[in-house]
Amino acid sequence: MEPPSASPRAGRGPWQELLLAVSLLAFWNPPTTAQVTVESVPPNAAEGKDALLRVLNLPGDTASLTWFKGETVLPTHKILLYVIDTKITTPGPAYSGRETIYPNGSLLFQNITLNDTGSYILQIINQKFETALVRGQLQVFQPVSQPLLTASNTTVTKDDSVVLTCSSNNTGVSIQWFFNGQILTLTDRMKLSQDNSTLTIDPVRKEDAGKYQCEVSNPVSSNKSDPVRLDVEDDSTEQSSGLPPGAIAGIVIGVVAGVAVIAALVYLQYFRKTGGASDLRDVTEHKPSASNHTHTFQIEEVAYSSLNFNVQEPKKSTSASSSPAATETVYSEVQKK
Ligand SMILES: *[C@@H]1O[C@H](CO)[C@@H](O)[C@H](O)[C@H]1NC(C)=O
Ligand SMILES: *[C@@H]1O[C@H](CO)[C@@H](O)[C@H](O)[C@H]1NC(C)=O
Ligand SMILES: *[C@@H]1O[C@H](CO)[C@@H](O)[C@H](O)[C@H]1NC(C)=O
Ligand SMILES: *[C@@H]1O[C@H](CO)[C@@H](O)[C@H](O)[C@H]1NC(C)=O
Ligand SMILES: *[C@@H]1O[C@H](CO)[C@@H](O)[C@H](O)[C@H]1NC(C)=O
Ligand SMILES: *[C@@H]1O[C@H](CO)[C@@H](O)[C@H](O)[C@H]1NC(C)=O
Ligand SMILES: *[C@@H]1O[C@H](CO)[C@@H](O)[C@H](O)[C@H]1NC(C)=O
């Protein structure tokens, strides 16, 4: 039942000096037992917690057990030696004080550190001084700290783009995005970077406004960022909600100034042309000084000035990205009686 080719007799020499080739499992297989294996419990250990390298199917005729740190069986890599008969445990150079060996071969690590990550070798010597080597592996992860979520801009205008960046102090984390507390559903306007650390929304829409969070996780923990609120302003927000007082004042001043300039021009034109047939000659501001001139005809002038300030919402126009600039129209109407 056991593959004979996989069961070479192990060397009987001094086990301390034995160098390992790669991936050795059990060298010798007692005929009545299954293969010896080592598993990590839990498979992914969290820094500061305990972890066990558990030995399964330890042969009944085991005489001594020795754990080594690393890939090779070297005296300097020895952690602990346990002799079954005497129940005596002897620490080696690689013993940190946090390891415990049990009679069933399992090795307990307390307060595990990142440095404990790596390969371990258990050397089993039986009562016939036959040696078996079994390899185990520990994977230790640090609990992840809180990631920091930043936005290129938290108040954007519709159709702008925005980049959200999730930064983590931890390596080897995977990143998950949340929108208003729910896992973010990507739309075709959203793109994640290869490692999921940046989210680009282009173009931004009104419905993208809300609370964003990122969550980093590794096999032992996860941690969510503080939320970042994204505001999306409508293109026409300014117009529909009324212009700021400053803008209104500016426009009024501009319009008044424009009318004044036109009036001044018209006035000048009137005095330049003496008898002119131009339509403009009749146009002037209400001015008593006009009568001082030597014009023979008498005119009564009435000047109408009608301003039409008209703001158009781009929303109503078909062009999506029309300029939001206000359109002003000034009609100057002059009538002669
Ligand atoms: C070996 O003993 C330890 C401590 O009693 C125990 O936690 C572990 O489960 C045992 N391993 C096996 C394979 O029974
Ligand atoms: C665990 O180990 C760290 C250093 O690696 C030490 O600061 C801490 O006090 C230890 N905790 C316990 C409970 O032994
Ligand atoms: C980590 O382990 C190596 C040997 O594997 C040792 O040289 C080093 O000092 C350890 N570092 C810490 C911080 O314990
Ligand atoms: C998240 O990380 C912070 C430190 O950055 C830590 O204080 C907090 O306990 C962690 N939360 C979780 C759920 O691990
Ligand atoms: C954020 O976006 C708004 C609207 O597009 C823009 O007016 C503002 O200048 C931007 N702020 C920064 C810091 O880029
Ligand atoms: C991130 O790492 C830096 C040093 O690399 C450290 O000063 C800082 O406290 C860490 N932040 C968190 C949240 O763990
Ligand atoms: C990125 O996130 C998606 C789900 O949003 C996930 O399926 C994928 O595995 C993640 N990729 C990485 C490298 O974390």
Automatic annotation (TrEMBL):
Alphabetized PROSITE patterns for the sequence: IG_LIKE (PS50835)
Biased composition (Low complexity): 317-329
Region feature (Disordered): 216-243, 313-337
Classification via Pfam families: ig, V-set
One GO cellular component, as annotated: cell surface
Ranges annotated as biased composition (Polar residues): 216-225
PANTHER family: CARCINOEMBRYONIC ANTIGEN-RELATED CELL ADHESION MOLECULE 1, CARCINOEMBRYONIC ANTIGEN-RELATED CELL ADHESION MOLECULE 19
Descriptive protein name: Carcinoembryonic antigen-related cell adhesion molecule 1-like
